[in-house]
Amino acid sequence: MGAFHAYDIRGVYNVDFDKHTAYKVGYFIPELLSTDKVLVGRDCRVSSPEVHEYGADVYDIGLSTTPMVYFGTANYGFKASVQITASHNPREYNGMKVSRENALPVGFDSGLGQIKEWIDSGKPTPAAERKGKVIDMDIHKDYLDFLLKFKGDYSLLNLAFDLSNGMACLYAKEIFGEDQSYIFDEMDGTFPNHEPNPLIPKNVEPLQDLVHEVGADVGVIYDGDADRVMFVDNEGKFISPDLMIAVLGHYYVEERGLKGTVLQDIRSSKAVGEYLSPMGCQMETWKVGRAFAAKKLRELDGVWGGELAGHYYFKDFFYSDSGLLASMLILRVVAAMKRKGVALSELIGKIARYKNSGEINFRIEDKAGAMNAVRDYFTSAETPTATMDFDGYRVEFPEWWFNIRPSNTEPYLRFICEATSDELLEEKVAMTKRLLIERFDAKI
Question: How far is 146 from 96, CA to CA, in rounded Å?
């Protein structure tokens, strides 16, 4: 049962889970969420149709982005939904993202763990596995109409898109037009051009080449299920996704006059808060992952939020994340800046004030011991200005900070560090690597 994780069910199909597990999950979801109706969508992976054939009665919206399922759940009042997807993972993976009423995420601690316990304990399901009753439901136009309410005037922009052969193909050209530059714009669940994960640098290289080739003002790349989006600036440089939380301030504060609370994850650059606070925004920091972020933004009644991984959450979108909506709003800002003569690279240059290591992954057996050792090592030599301990540790000092946390989906301890200079950053990263390798036999 290695497919059950903090945020979703995901793994190598027919290794970590199979159609029998999917059937049991489908059978138990109505009991878990007290409903006899489940909204179901799926991505274009080769195994998704088989995973789809489980035992609950479903309202089937067919091929869909993950945010499209969130929209359907909240907009039509469903108390349960499932998107069959492995998001950004390679082609051999699949999984399920489960939501409850109002598109609130169901994570391991809020329901998936109970389903795992029922399956592990052999809780009875019907002896003969059967397909549930399926009611076809077409929500494509409703979701498109919803998104188009946020469309800006992009006529001045030269745009480049990498749709990653994923689910963004369903909508991107309807939103942004056929006359922009697109690559990998046909759905193909074998992902023949690159894995649908924009956080891996080599996967972004074709988009960077396209930006240079066509002289684009900005490049946009979505992950496999289109709940995440990332950007390349006009010079072809990849933009750290957390910085786009700050860019969104120009839309919400300057264009719409909405200040309010903004959510960031524990890995976010200090530059984000330093940019948004003078605009009148109240910054809140919380755990990584949709299972935590969407719920927290709703609790705070926040206006928007984001994560280093390229998820962006919106009160306008049922406190959920949408890669397409995020790109529409950010491109509004890029267009407004171009009208002022400000290129995207210049805007990001005004936001990004620190040197950042990016996430470094360490394979370590004793994750808790390693996290404590890193915290104690640095705090014994320097007095912190702030400490957070709700998702690993984030420890801040006057000129630098670090976050060290266990991955919820992979066998890694993740470390990220930010400093005021390259020299200080390199020093702190080297110290951390030496400590973890010498004391915990870490593998990078």
Answer: 24
Sequence-distant (≥ 6) Cβ neighbours of residue 138 within 8 angstroms: 61, 62
The two tokens of residue 350 are 């005004």
Cβ(320)–Cβ(294) below 8 Å: yes
Number of helices and strands in the chain (H, E): 14, 22
Report d(CA 189, CA 279) in Å as an integer: 43
- Indicate the DSSP class of residue 40: E
* Angle between helix 66-75 and helix 140-148 axes, rounded to 10 deg: 90
Q: Can you tell me the distance from the alpha carbon of 135 to that of 138, in angstroms, rounded to the nearest whole number?
A: 10
Residue 81 annotated in active site: no
Greatest Cα pair distance in the chain: 67
Question: Which amino acid, 139?
Answer: I
- What is the spatial distance between Cα 198 and Cα 27, in angstroms, rounded to a whole number? 34
Identified catalytic residue from 48, 64, 81, 87: 87
* Strands, E assignment, 26-121: 38-42, 58-63, 80-84, 93-100
Contact between 233 and 226 (Cβ < 8 Å): no
CB-side neighbour CA atoms (13 Å) of 367 = 17
pTM over 0.70: yes
What are the structure tokens assigned to 38, written together? Answer: 């489940």
Return d(Cα 60, Cα 35) in angstroms, integer: 16
Q: What's the pLDDT tens digit per position in 358-397?
A: 999 999 989 999 999 999 999 999 999 999 999 999 999 9
Nearest one of 324, 300, 301, 296 to 312, comparing CA atoms: 324
pLDDT digits (tens, 9 = 90+) for 163-173: 999 999 999 99
Q: How far apart, in Å, do the first and last CA atoms of the chain sit?
A: 27
Q: Please give the torsion angle defined by the CA atoms of residues 220, 223, 226 and 232, in that order, rounded to the nearest 10 degrees.
A: -10
- 379 token code pair: 């705090």
DSSP H stretches of helix in 191-322: 201-214, 243-249, 270-276, 290-300
CA distance 95 to 4: 9
Q: How far is C-alpha 31 from the geometric centre of its chain's CA atoms?
A: 28
